[in-house]
């Protein structure tokens, strides 16, 4: 009887932790849907609103490793719970934000809470479960991660349409309070492995500064795509970030109690897992930033209609998570990851083939199903495989590193795919607009407007009321749509290449059975 009660408490604990993770990841994507409403509410522009997104992304990535280490040292439950409380308070403040600056600051604070939950979630679940139940629990957590990221347009669209933009923040409050109560009661604390260790303040500062510089440099390039990589505004940040991370590694090799045990990177299996995390971000998650505008701006679906159709991708996470947890205890996780990534590559190629001026959901869904299958399989497997071969005192840091590389992959993917799309889009415009019978002044003005607006907004210019009245409207609109299609095809093919590369890398680096390294659990200065 007591054993059954203990198992029930375990699953309630998993539900509480999953709820926190769901909110933290949802807030990475849900704000996109609310931006048009925020533009009107704050009487500002999309450019000014960009930091509502960037503040969360930047602070989230920078604090992941720090929160992981603090959890390993002082107890993962304490840091997870404190992060959740901070996230809930920041969400309430963001919903009441009187100005854009206040919202930007609130988003940064909210990101610290989100990073604490995400960085410790896998390690906390792993320490609360054992045996086959651990694989199942990590599989369920992985499915929650997958569906939270993909369901942003649906949940955000519904909340904004019915309750306004502030609802995307207020909704976190009641669910967050429920999660706090459940975690206090049901989640078991982990040992404080760093009771006798010193905080590696230098390592924390160097890792945060290095990640900040790299991600900020990528954000600058994303917001100003025509800026050269060699420009000081971009290369200055990127080079500084790389130098800081090199110094970070050198420091970690020489301090008594390092923030990160650099020897983790000597294990091919762990390198393979980091590669999968990066590919998942650069491929699947980054592609979401391009699929949503395709369905909304070019096909013409509303935010809710887009979200419903994207269930073709996200629903697989809900279905496959528990199944993967069971299968992973019987079959090779390595080959399940490899095959799933190859299937995702085929899905992106199917979407590339389907792209045309008259494309609709009927044409896209076969590829979306395969992508959803990959997401639903790889996310849970990444969690379970990522905890293999890791000693208990390093589980928090291993979890944090996976999330850092997943987030870094997403940022790199969004920027890289955007540059590829822009290049193909502009090349097609330059080669075909001149063939339209229209005044030279009008052509030059519209071309500059299209290039400045970018592929996402080109449809709005081409099909505006003023342009639609012009005698050359139909030919002009056809060129713009075809230019966008060329860019999207390039995005899909590139993403397919990224995912297939991840499959090949997994085949070469991952091991079928991983034993934990023989490292003492005692603090080094004992």
From TrEMBL:
Membrane topology: Multi-pass membrane protein
Keywords: Cell membrane, Membrane, Transmembrane, Transmembrane helix, Transport
Compartmental location: Cell membrane
A matching Pfam family: MFS_1
InterPro entries, A to Z: EmrB-like, MFS, MFS_dom, MFS_trans_sf
GO molecular function: transmembrane transporter activity
Primary subcellular site in the record, as a coarse category: membrane
Leader peptide range in chain numbering: none
Family classification: Belongs to the major facilitator superfamily. EmrB family.
NCBIfam families for the chain: efflux_EmrB (TIGR00711)
Protein name per UniProt: MFS transporter permease
Species this protein is from: Loigolactobacillus backii
């Amino acid at each position: 009887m007591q054993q059954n009660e203990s198992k029930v408490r375990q699953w309630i604990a998993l539900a509480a932790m999953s709820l926190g993770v769901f909110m933290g990841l949802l807030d990475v994507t849900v704000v996109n849907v609310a931006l048009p409403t925020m533009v009107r509410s704050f009487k500002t522009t999309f450019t000014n609103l960009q930091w509502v997104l960037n503040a969360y992304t930047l602070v989230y990535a920078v604090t992941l490793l720090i929160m992981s280490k603090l959890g390993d040292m002082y107890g993962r439950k304490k840091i997870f719970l404190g992060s959740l409380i901070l996230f809930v308070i920041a969400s309430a403040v963001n919903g009441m934000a009187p100005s854009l600056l206040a919202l930007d600051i609130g988003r940064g604070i909210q990101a610290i809470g989100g990073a604490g939950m995400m960085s410790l979630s896998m390690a906390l679940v792993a320490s609360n479960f054992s045996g086959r139940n651990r694989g199942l629990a990590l599989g369920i957590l992985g499915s929650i991660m997958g569906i939270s990221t993909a369901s942003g347009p649906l949940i955000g669209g519904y909340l904004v349409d019915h309750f306004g933009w502030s609802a995307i923040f207020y909704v976190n409050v009641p669910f967050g309070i429920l999660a706090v109560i459940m975690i206090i009661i049901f989640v078991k604390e982990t040992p404080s492995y760093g009771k006798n260790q010193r905080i590696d303040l230098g390592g924390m500062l160097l890792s945060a500064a290095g990640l900040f510089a790299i991600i900020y440099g990528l954000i600058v390039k994303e917001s100003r795509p025509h800026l050269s990589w060699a420009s000081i505004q971009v290369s200055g940040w990127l080079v500084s970030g790389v130098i800081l991370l090199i110094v970070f590694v050198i420091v970690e090799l020489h301090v008594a109690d390092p923030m990160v045990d650099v020897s983790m990177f000597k294990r091919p299996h762990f390198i393979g897992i980091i590669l999968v995390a990066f590919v998942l971000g650069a491929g699947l998650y980054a592609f979401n930033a391009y699929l949503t505008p395709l369905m909304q701006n070019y096909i013409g679906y509303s935010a809710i209609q887009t979200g419903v159709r994207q269930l073709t991708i996200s629903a697989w996470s809900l279905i496959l998570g528990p199944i993967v947890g069971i299968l992973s205890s019987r079959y090779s996780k390595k080959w399940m990851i490899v095959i799933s990534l190859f299937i995702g590559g085929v899905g992106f190629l199917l979407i590339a083939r389907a792209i045309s001026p008259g494309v609709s959901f009927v044409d896209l869904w076969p590829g979306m199903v395969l992508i959803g299958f990959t997401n639903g399989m790889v996310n849970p497997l990444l969690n379970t495989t990522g905890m293999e071969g890791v000693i208990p005192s390093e589980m928090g840091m291993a979890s944090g590193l996976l999330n850092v590389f997943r987030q870094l992959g997403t940022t790199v993917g969004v920027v890289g795919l955007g540059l590829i799309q822009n290049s193909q889009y502009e090349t097609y415009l330059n080669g075909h607009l001149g063939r339209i019978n229209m005044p030279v002044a009008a052509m030059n003005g519209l071309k500059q407007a299209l290039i400045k607006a970018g592929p996402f907004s080109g449809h709005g210019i081409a099909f505006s009321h003023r342009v639609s009245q012009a005698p050359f409207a139909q030919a002009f609109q056809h060129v713009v749509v075809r230019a966008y299609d060329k860019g999207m095809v390039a995005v899909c093919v590139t993403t397919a290449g990224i995912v297939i590369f991840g499959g090949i890398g997994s085949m070469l680096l991952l091991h079928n059975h991983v034993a934990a390294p023989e490292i003492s659990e005692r603090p080094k200065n004992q």
